[in-house]
Amino acid sequence: MAQDQENALQEPAQAAGEEQAQQAVFGIEKIYVKDLSLEIPNAPQVFLQRENPEVGIELHNSAAAIGDGVFEAVITVTVTSKIEDKTVFLVEVAQAGIFQIRNVPNEAVEGILGVTCPNILFPYAREAVSDLVTRAGFPPVLLNPINFEALYLQQKQQQEAQAGDSPSTH
């Protein structure tokens, strides 16, 4: 009888352990600056100009598996400031993170890497850009928030449209 009760207690504990092992896991292992670049090709003359420069911003994100259930996500922000055809400054920041993603369906992993990870990394990239531009002697560049979900969905639609446009090989 005592052994039956012991077995009865172990079975729910084993089931709970298996259920816990299958739960989705998302974790931030490390956030770091992977690359940082500042160029002021027309210094010191550019500091004497009084015209307001035009600022252009480019954003790219990528992700790759680096281990079993471990991924590196990187967002790269490039800020170019120009007056006419002269570059005032060029700043590029590659902000990266190592993320643990386990027990998640493959189709969901792509969304996590395309939306969740960039949302986590972007504030760090925004701060690095602003700090670097300020240290270079210019007014800070404050990047507006970005809707990574909308960007991800737009990229998916473009990929589907391109796949639909390509001729079949049957």
- SS class: alpha+beta
Strand order of the largest sheet: 1-4-3-2
Unreliable stretches (pLDDT < 50, length at least 5) are none
The overall strand count is 4
For the sheet with most strands, the description reads: 4 strands, antiparallel
Give the count of structural domains.
Answer: 1
Average pLDDT, rounded to a whole number, is: 88
Task: Give helix and strand order, one letter per element, not per position.
Answer: HEEEEHH
**CATH class descriptor:** Alpha Beta
Helix percent reads 40-55%
**What general form does the structure show?**
elongated
Distance between the termini: 67 Å
Number of helices: 3
The Cα radius of gyration reads: 24 Å
Summarize the structure.
This protein is of the alpha+beta class. The chain has one domain (23-153): Roll (Bacterial Protein-export protein SecB).
What does this structure look like?
The protein is an alpha+beta fold and 170 residues long. It has one domain (23-153): SecB-like (Bacterial Protein-export protein SecB, Roll). It has helices at 2-21, 106-135, 148-165; strands spanning 25-39, 54-67, 70-83, 86-102. It has a four-stranded antiparallel β-sheet with strand order 1-4-3-2. Helix 2 (106-135) crosses helix 3 (148-165).
Please render the helix and strand layout as text.
Layout: H1 2-21, E1 25-39, E2 54-67, E3 70-83, E4 86-102, H2 106-135, H3 148-165
Antiparallel strand pairs: 1-4, 2-3, 3-4
Helix pairs in contact: 2-3
